[in-house]
Amino acid sequence: MKKINTIFLSILLVMATSLSFGSTPGDDPAAAKYPNGAKIYAAKCIACHQVTGMGIPNAFPPLKGSDYLMADKKRAVKQVLNGSQEEMLVNGATYVLPMPFQVDTHKDAVDVINYVLNAWGNDGGTVKLEDVKDINIVR
Ligand code: HEC
Which residue from 61, 83, 125, 136 could staple onto 90, CB 3.0 to 4.6 Å apart? Predict the structure, then answer.
C-alpha cells in the first residue's frame, strides 16, 4: 500500500512540474486573470511577439518590459484595433515593419492588452473598456 502511494505521489509531482514549467502562454499567472486575452495572444500575437513576449530583434518589438507599451495603455489598445505603419522606438531600438490590425472589438482589444500588461512579469496595471470606447476603428 505504501509503495502504491509513493508511485501515485510521484506521478502527481511529475504532472505538477510539467504544468508549472511549461512554456505555453496558458502557464503565465496572467492567463488565469485574463483568460480571453491569453487566448487571443496565443492565437494572434505569438507569431510575431513570441511566446516569451520578447519579439524578434530588428523586426518585431518586445512586449515584455516594453517602455513604449507601458507609456500609454490606450495607445496599445489602438495598436491592436487599427495596427500601425510608423517608425517606433521601443527600449532604444527602432522598428519599421507595419503591424496589421488584430482584433475587431474594443472588448477583445482591452482583454489582450490587459494580458500583455501583466504577462512575463510585466507590472503594467490595467486599462478599462469605458476609457477606450472613443477609439475609432479605422480600416
Ligand atoms: C505580423 C506580426 C505582428 C503580429 C501578429 C502582432 N504584432 Fe504587434 N507589432 C508588430 C510590429 C512590426 C510592431 C511595430 C509596428 C510599427 O512600427 O508601426 C508591433 C508593435 C506592437 C506594440 C507597440 C510596441 C511595443 O512593443 O510595445 C504593441 C503593444 C503590440 N504590437 C501588441 C500586439 C498584440 C497584443 C498583438 C496580438 C493581438 C500583436 N501585437 C500582433 C508586429 C506584430
Answer: 61
Q: How confident is the prediction along the chain (139 residues), in pLDDT tens digits per residue?
A: 556 555 555 544 444 444 444 456 668 999 999 999 999 999 999 999 999 999 999 999 999 999 999 999 999 999 999 999 999 999 999 999 999 999 999 999 999 999 999 999 999 999 999 999 999 999 8
Name the pTM for this structure: 0.87
CATH number at residue 58: 1.10.760.10
Ligand 1 pocket test: pick from 52, 60, 66 the residue with the most ligand atoms within 8 Å of its Cβ: 60
The answer to whether residues 126 and 94 touch, using CB atoms and an 8 Å cutoff, is no
Task: Assess if residue 60 is contained within a domain.
Answer: yes
- 6: in domain: no
**89 Cβ partners below 8 Å, 6+ apart?**
68, 95
In a domain, 53, yes or no: yes
Q: Hey, what's the cell of 73?
A: 495603455
Asked if residue 9 belongs to a domain, the reply is no
Distance CA 105, CA 49 (A): 21
What spacing in Å lies between the alpha carbon of 35 and ligand 1's midpoint?
20
